[in-house]
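Help! Submission page says 'invalid entity' but I think these are all valid:
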Amino acid sequence: MPSSAPLLVMRDIDKRFQGVHALAKAALEVRPGEIMALVGQNGAGKSTLIKVLTGAYSRDAGSIDFDGRPIAFALPQEAQRGGISTIYQEINLVPFRSVTENIFLGREHRRFGLLDWGRMNAEAAEVLRRFDVAIDVRRPLLDFSTAIQQMVAIARAVSFKAQLVIMDEPTSSLDEREVAVLFDVMRRLRSEGVAVIFITHRLDELYQVCDRVTVMRDGRTIMTRPMAEVDKLHLISAMLGRDVETVRGHATGFSDAAGKAGDEVLSADGLKIGRRVRDARLEVRAGQIVGLAGLLGSGRTETARAVFGADPPDAGSIRLMGRAVAPREPADAIALGVGYCSEDRKADGIVPEMSVRENLTLAILPRLVAMGVVDEGRQRSIVEKFMKRLAIKASGPEQKIRELSGGNQQKVLLARWLCADPKLLILDEPTRGIDVGAKAEIQSLIRELADQGLGVLMISSELEEIVEGADRVFVLSDGRTVADLPHAEASAQAIMAAMAHEDPAATGEAAHG
Amino acid sequence: MADAPTLTERRATPDVVAFLRRYAALTGLIALLIFNFLVTPHFLSLQTLNVNLTQVATIVIVSVGMTLVIATGGIDLSVGSLMAIAGALAPLIFLSPFGVAHPTLGDMLAFVVPIGVAGLLGGFNGWFITRFQVQPIVGTLVMFIAGRGIGQVVTNGNLQVFHNPTFQFIGLGRVFGVTFQVIVMLVLVAVAAWALKRTLFGRHILAVGGNERAARLAGVPVARVKRWVYAISGLCAGIAGLVVISINSSSDANLVGLGMELDAIAAVAVGGTPFTGGQASVVGSLIGALLIQLLRYTLLANGVPDAAALVVKGAIIAGAVWSQQRARSA
């Protein structure tokens, strides 16, 4: 059982990237033989903190004591030899080699200069048996399921005589039965005195295995508590930085006016997509801003992409502009009048080497063409109109988009869809990573567009944005739509309660799993 | 308005770098020309010009298609093999009893069919790569290996020797003293450069190469664009294959287009088109091919053996890639 002397103490950790604080006086303390949950929103600093611990990043300030001694690992391999093993979401093993080879990679047993396969196979089988995994260790790793592969990764970690095992979202690719096996392994590690840091976005899981929880937000450690003393609602409010009794103020550029709802532009029901989305429901009407709230990993982006045809759903029905459709490519949805701004501007939005002009007109280019040749006069006049209307700051339409600030890039991407005159615009985190001024501008623009009759589906992790901006709010939790709130009822408290599954009125599905 | 000067200042540096990067090959070419005017005997003659342009024409024709492929972030290893197939088919057609009986129709078909087949096989490359999500280098490797085999199978591995002035006009004919293949080359370069800049297809090529995921989400038909690009690369290779057999008055599926994929890739690289896709210069590839050719000529004309010229060619490619990387990190 947890002794009083902590195994790991990280104190006052600072880490800056190009002057921006990723970690500011972050702290983490783990006792031997305890399972510590580490939670926080995207960009809260969890993985940065772990990377500082394992030596993948160097720290700018602060101290780390492990097993009573100050440490400063320069490389993850050093941390591994020092007793700290990390298991990543994507399994970092060699799929084509045998289970034994993967467990012993880099520290093979030798006899007379040759590899001692007999001994290594026996030891590998032995260490896996401790976790009730009985497999042929001579077969290549890729023959086995993801869960078994994860077990092999853990066996590898343990065979390093690890005192601390870090698991970064290990359950994201496992099904429920496999998760249960993994939790058994975690409890077994605990009973052997090994400490575990468990990072996950699924809050239910925390309560099943964790002893304590550390919450991070904006690079800081917000609180550390025994798991039994925090309920889900408090956990969520600590992660999001909202008081449970939060008061609605005007923190965003949205005016409070609730739009008049027009014709239905989108309705989706019973959406099922991979493992992330199990039963999502949505409805957007013309002139409405519909907020889609949910914690990270709740399936918001997956749902939006399914509606847009980027990743077709496995099951469920979608209606766009009142017509039942099954978009298989974004082009299908675009043809019906849908636009989609991704949350990841860099990966899914901009074409960096192209000019503002080309990026802005990318989606409508086929309409600006006569006999295959682009009508540059029309193109230019559209670009000028929207650069003026959205106040895009650039040296001119020919400047490369990668040279613009994040806010201006986002405006160009918004304009890419606005110039197509859509009926439904899906915005995934429209103001993430954008400075305050541009943020308010974009928010009031969204409101203005909705007032002119555009249907908007807005995904946001910022509660203010949802609470103040949305005329109707759908809340996703663990891939299910658990609440459908009109503007008047969509308080921060109600949304957080829905995220925590604590509103029995929201859905009868709450008692799952 | 206060930040206007900083904006122009910020733009000034990349412009100079971009200019140097864009015209590095051209600068090298001009320097080499000046060197030759001064040093190489009899350099300034129409014959020298014709020899060099004629030798470079097939490489340039192939590298036009290759530039488009590389602009999408892909690569096409099959061009040499497609040249061999086109080169094997043409004589089969105009030497066939039908071709001999109807010479006009036979010669026409001897142009259209081989180029069409090469284009179709290129389109097959594109289909294979997009349908099964194969990496282009692996996807076109299939045709690189199989294509030369196909060429040898249809000819039973025989050397086909012929004399057909009408057909051979594509390699040997002259218009106003300029070999016809050079005109074909210039026309293809001009059309491709224009299309890349001005047409929907051209802009889609660059969008796919610049950010495939973003392009798809903006409604660009990514798979269709890629298929067409490989088909065009096949068409270019087909044309080049016919030019080669016309010059040689013979077709040997073992030899036609051998190593052409690497020459074309080298021309594109020296011409300043980055292999990451999203940016491309067809004229750059022309200059790159001319630079490599002229360098080789200069070394040979001044008594340096061909083996040493290969080393210099390698050095030029390394230098071109190096200058591009410097330009990007600056």
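Support: the input was valid. A stray whitespace character was the problem, and the output above is from the cleaned input. The domain at 247-337+422-513 of chain A is CATH 3.40.50.300 (Rossmann fold).
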